[in-house]
Amino acid sequence: MASDTSASHDETATGAHNRRGPFRSGDRVQLTDERRRMNTITLEEGGEFHTHRGVLVHDDLIGQPEGTVITNSVGVQYQALRPLLKDFVLSMPRGAAVVYPKDAGQIITMADIFPGARVIEAGVGSGALSISLLRAIGDTGHLRSFERREEFAEIAQGNVETMFGGPHPAWNLTLGDLAEQLGEYEAPGTVDRAVLDMLAPWECVSAVATALVPGGVVICYVATVTQLSRVAEALRADGRFTEPESFETMVRGWHVEGLAVRPDHRMVAHTGFLISARRLADGSGRLAPKRRASKTEFTEEDMNAWTPMALGERNVSDRKLRRAARDARKLADRAAYQGHDADPSGD
């Protein structure tokens, strides 16, 4: 006979309380009208959502079940749902470009991020990938994220706490360089998985190889073919990894209405490349496929091809970063208040 133990544990998992139940003050809610236009609001007692097509009173939604269809002051109808992870990631405050959901999903699967895993991450950005990693490893796992820029770390921390309703017990955010500081925090041969989302992941290959357990996985997210090539050669040159595998993911939606079935006119095409390899046992050599010799040295011109300016990356102003950090913290504080209010223990 099945027991109710799993259900009770489920309720205590970090972030579970704000993904279930009726709408509460502090909830993020996605409103979609009949024309499929979406707006995301944060519910507040006494709050109102104004558009040129009328007013929707927040109190009319608070206490209602998710999936409610509600009518505003002039008869416009909205369906109300909590944003899914993919919706939250694409609408949350950001200081850096986020890892798209299609790539985050591939990272979780291809790197085999499992419950309870010990994971290291370099390049937190706005926290999108950190959220996916924390969901995969659960409360019993361990994620240590390294971020060089303090402003990005603040934004990421706010977004993570918004998603989970407060700090996540499995997350440690370290301000600094993984290549230089990893050994201070993680002993050799103790890390299960390494995820690198940064401009120059090859700088971290040696440190990651030392930290990974035999059979552990490293996966890197890079934007250009030049970066992809250099990471692959760095993994091969290190000698402690299997032959790397590289790929990219493209997602094309379809319009389906009766017999009118066709691909959407727009699609999410190239966002980045993923390259992964596994840690070999000490003393074991890589089984390299036989191939014709090719150019592996990188010239100064090659190196300049992956600088932020060459990649088209815009400099984010300090003012925008401060605003994003404030917005992320405000949302996190609301989520934490909502979680405390929903806690049956009242602690």
TrEMBL record:
Keywords annotated in UniProt: Methyltransferase, S-adenosyl-L-methionine, Transferase, tRNA processing
Span list, region Disordered: 1-34
Give residue spans, biased composition: Basic and acidic residues.
Answer: 25-34
Q: Give me the segments passing through the membrane.
A: none
Q: Does the keyword Methyltransferase apply?
A: yes
Question: What Gene3D superfamilies has UniProt attached to this entry?
Answer: 3.10.330.20, Vaccinia Virus protein VP39
What GO terms describe the biological role, i.e. biological process, of this protein?
tRNA methylation
- GO CC, any one term: tRNA (m1A) methyltransferase complex
PANTHER family from the UniProt entry: TRNA (ADENINE(58)-N(1))-METHYLTRANSFERASE, TRNA (ADENINE(58)-N(1))-METHYLTRANSFERASE, MITOCHONDRIAL
Q: Which GO terms describe its molecular function?
A: tRNA (adenine(58)-N1)-methyltransferase activity
Q: Which InterPro entries match?
A: SAM-dependent_MTases_sf (IPR029063), TRM61_C (IPR049470), tRNA_MeTrfase_Gcd14 (IPR014816)
Q: Ranges for the tRNA (adenine(58)-N(1))-methyltransferase catalytic subunit TRM61 C-terminal domain?
A: 90-257
Q: What is this protein called?
A: tRNA (Adenine-N1)-methyltransferase
